[in-house]
Every structure is written in C-alpha cells, then in structure tokens.
C-alpha cells in the first residue's frame, strides 16, 4: 500500500510541477494566494497592487489551477479557503505570518512597515492567528460579502496574475 501511495504521490508531484511550469511559476516568485470571490480578499489584493512599488508580488486565486498546484506542492489542502497564503521562495506562510510578511515588503505610509515587524515579534503567533482565522476569516463573507466577478484586467496587471 505504501508503494502505491508513493507512486501516486510521484504522479501528482509531476502533474503539479507541469501546471506550475505552464503558468510560469519560479521558486523565487512571491505569490499571494487569495479567495477570488471574497470582497475583503479582493480589496487586500488591490491594496497590495497599489503599494507594491517594487513589483514584488504575483497573485493567484486559491480556487485557480495555480492556487491548487501551489497548495498541493506544499502538501496543503487545495480546497482550504480559510486564509490568505504567501508562497515566498518556495516556503508557504499563512494566516498572520502571510499578512505581516506581505506588509513588511510594501511601500506603506508612516511607520506601517515597522509596525508589521513589531507585531510579528511582540504579539504571540497563536493570538495573531486566532484574530486572523477565528475573527476575520470566519466573518469576512458576512461583513464584506462575496463578488460574483473578478477584477477587470489591463495589460499591465494581467502579468501579475497566475490563474
């Protein structure tokens, strides 16, 4: 049974790598995975796009082929839409770690980058994750609603999305 499981995993790994290669994914990419129909998530993506002056991030919906492939590559449930995910240099960050790592790399007003770093160091991860998951993620649809359509793309932005 374990030999069959290993063979199936090898086939799945190959298929995942094929999808990611087709989508142009490089391990050095910093990809933000987000719920493509969540208004809060789409607003967060728009915020990142507006403040990513170094053109650091690429994006994929968690529901997309790319999102599923990146989650499978990281041995995570590809159907888990509970949190924004950052895949940075092949390492997966989720919940508060993803949000704070993203915030530290944006051009933000005032001391917001420093505040993100301080929050990551001072606030215990279980408390940060509780807030991200149990407070925000579980209520985001109730508070912000769902979108039936994706953002309209222009040529400049289209290259940032890996769907």
From TrEMBL:
It holds the Pfam family DCC1-like. One of its GO terms (molecular function) is protein-disulfide reductase activity. InterPro entries: DCC1-like, DCC_oxidoreductase. This is Thiol-disulfide oxidoreductase DCC. It comes from Hemiselmis andersenii.
């Amino acid at each position: 049974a374990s030999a069959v499981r290993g063979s199936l995993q090898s086939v799945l790994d190959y298929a995942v790598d094929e999808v990611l290669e087709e989508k142009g994914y490089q391990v050095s990419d910093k990809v933000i995975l987000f719920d493509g129909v969540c208004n809060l998530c789409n607003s967060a993506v728009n915020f990142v796009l507006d403040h990513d002056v170094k053109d650091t991030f690429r994006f994929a919906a968690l529901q997309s082929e790319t999102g599923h492939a990146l989650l499978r590559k990281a041995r995570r449930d590809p159907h888990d839409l509970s949190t924004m995910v950052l895949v940075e240099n092949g390492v997966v960050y989720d919940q508060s770690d993803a949000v704070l790592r993203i915030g530290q790399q944006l051009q933000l007003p005032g001391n917001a980058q420093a505040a993100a770093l301080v929050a990551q160091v001072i606030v215990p991860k279980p408390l940060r994750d509780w807030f991200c998951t149990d407070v925000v993620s579980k209520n985001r649809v109730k508070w912000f609603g769902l979108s039936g359509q994706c953002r309209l793309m222009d040529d400049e932005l289209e290259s940032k999305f890996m769907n």
